[in-house]
Specification:
With about 230 residues, the chain is mainly alpha-helical. The chain is built from ten helices and no strands. The protein has one domain. It is about 75% helix and about 0% strand. The two termini are about 35 Å apart.
Length: about 230
């Protein structure tokens, strides 16, 4: 069951992009222009947030630093799953269910609201780099597709993972939330997402945690009543 999540993460954006193409070919709705997200992302600070964070020329150390945290997303999901499995199989199953449900919701949104991130700018400002940039580029080429930018499923999923990790492994609470913070910043710094994508992903992650917690409390309440 744990191996199920990674194929969903990898194949989902590709399939949602293909379905989105079919939807727009049949004239069901119109794609959202990427320039709109660029303009919204510039409202608060007057320039593209990635340029605000790294400048036009960047810094080799920070480029690798943020690419590492972007890559940490692909480590945090299975790592947390293994820890939960070792602690309690039922916790692990609940974790996989919640994470998979969140991804499927994102993929449905991508079908009807396809938005491409600032990949063209990334190709211009990150022509080549160090180890983690190379690894991230390899992953993006094979497992990520344009049209799956809003909301950021990376941020939404990482928020949910951080909540699970910090709730059940108290000693790692700071590590989880710091990783979530820097990974969210990295999605903009590395020019995979606009700032509005990150905000959307964060809001979706918060709503997911609240809804899943509400469902767990309701289920526990119902089970308690049936035992009486």
């Amino acid at each position: 069951m744990g191996l199920y999540v990674e194929p969903v993460v990898s194949i989902g954006p590709i399939q949602s992009t293909l379905l989105s193409d079919r939807v727009y070919q049949h004239g069901c709705c119109a794609p959202v222009p990427w320039s709109l997200f660029y303009e919204v992302g510039c409202l608060d600070i007057g320039e593209f947030p990635a340029f605000f964070l790294r400048g036009k020329h960047g810094n080799a150390f920070f480029d690798e630093f943020f690419h590492f945290f972007y890559f940490s997303y692909y480590l945090a999901i299975p790592h947390t799953g293994v820890l939960l499995f070792r602690k309690d199989v039922k916790l692990f199953e609940s974790y996989v269910f919640q994470l998979s449900s969140l991804f499927y919701l994102c993929f449905v949104i991508f079908i009807f609201l396809p938005v491409e991130g600032p990949i063209a700018l990334r190709n211009e400002y990150f022509p080549q780099g160090g180890l983690f940039q190379t690894v991230v580029d390899f992953i993006y080429t094979g497992a990520e597709k344009p049209g799956a930018a809003f909301p950021s499923s990376h941020v939404a999923a990482m928020f949910l993972v951080a909540w699970w990790g910090s709730t059940h492994f108290r000693r790692m609470k700071t590590i989880y939330w710091v990783t979530c913070l820097f990974m969210s910043i990295a999605t903009v710094y590395c020019m995979f997402h606009y700032a509005v994508d990150v905000i959307g992903g964060l809001l979706l992650g918060v709503v997911a945690v609240l809804m899943f917690n509400w469902a767990d409390i309701r289920r526990y309440y119902d089970e308690t009543l049936h035992k009486r």
